[in-house]
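Amino Acid Chain and Its Fold in Token Form
===========================================
Structure side: the spatial fold of the chain, written down as a series of whole-number tokens.
Position: the record begins directly beneath this header, with no further notes in between.
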Amino acid sequence: MRKNLFFVFLLSGLFGFAQSNCNYGAASAQTSNGENITTGGDFEYSAATDFDVEARKVLTAKQLTFNVLKGSANVNSVNVKILKEFQGMPGEVLHTFANLTPTSQTLVYETGEENLDAYKITVTFPESFDLQKGKYFIQIQAKNADSSPVFWEITKETTRKVGRFDFTKMNAEPWFGGFSYYDHVFDIIGNCNDTGEPEPDFGTEYTQGTVGNNYETGGTLVGRSLADDFIVPDNQKFTFTKFKMSTLQIGNVKYATINVRASQNDMPGELLYSFENVGPKTENFYGYHTVQGYPLDVVAADLEFEWNQPVELLPGKYFIEVIATPQPFTDYQRWEATSQPGIGGFSYTSYDGGESWEMNDGYNFVFEVSGFNKPYLGVNDIANNAISVYPNPVNDVLNINSAKAIKKVLIYNAAGQIVKNSDAVQNNKLNVSELSQGVYFVNAVLDNGETKTFKIIKK
């Protein structure tokens, strides 16, 4: 079996109304390659692949299928764990199922290698379980009746996918991977249930970005902050939900802190929003490329990040800042840059955590900001929909005044995690005394579905 396996992940979800059947997974490309997941021998092998439960859905998981490469002996038992994602990697174990007996194992195709063909293994969970919106990992181990090895099948590198590149481990060692540019073949099957939450009306889908020029160069992500600008058009309000960046790497980005900054003198200025230690929701592999002046070919990969809390931006110029945590094979970890024209001005680098910035004269980073645009309200309409919060900084009680009724209020910390959820604001007041000191974002949802977001400081 080859050790360096590269492929990309295809996520398929069949969504519908409450109690609709659905599955999340990656389809086989008949690669005849796989990752060792053998248990019960001298070494304990396992691997993990990820999937995402979307907003306003609850997955009730009932069954799992996955493809393996093995000999003629049956798989005797399977160990499965469901883990919550943490900083882009497998984290807390939510559910453990040990020594599951497969309900079926079916030949899928012959590989042409001696004593090694592809089989689909099906296991039924002894009890179903629910998964809310978020990213999860499935960890699998398998044991053959004759103690021969079992390999979890992978797909091709040319497959476009949704998800992270996969991870592996041996014995009790830490998770290793995320930079092998492949995923495993599986389906987690159950019901997708609607939560009943209304879909917010943010407006018309909108994307803005800078296009690359054949991966000509990049700015290093190791030990510094990188930033580039984007512009919210006049007379529009931009609800910012996703950020995609193109990277050149030998290794990968485990997670990153993504900041939105105001523009001050056409440079990165005041910090407006911060999402700390966010793992990419998706990664896509775009091949190996030669970089001038570097002795090795490097991997091109797109990383897409998604916010738990949408960010509302009014017309003007802003900067997107990336502070990455790479997991390198080498020190080559770059945000792709281009000498072609980009949005606004050139990109910037900071060596002191954003206190000061140096222009990368002649170069823009390659990225996309995505979300929704809505016409920006005129002065009279703004008065009719006015909402304000005070005092700021706040100690115990936050006053929230609105010309229209408030349906609920969500408060997020700087990492984008919900720390307070209130379905009602009594007498325009919200008690925040239990919050720790720091920066928070207040998201007020009006009865008409419109949302307003404010940054506050808790004393």
Observations:
- DSSP finds one helix and 32 strands in the chain.
- Residues 225 and 323 are 5 Å apart (CA to CA).
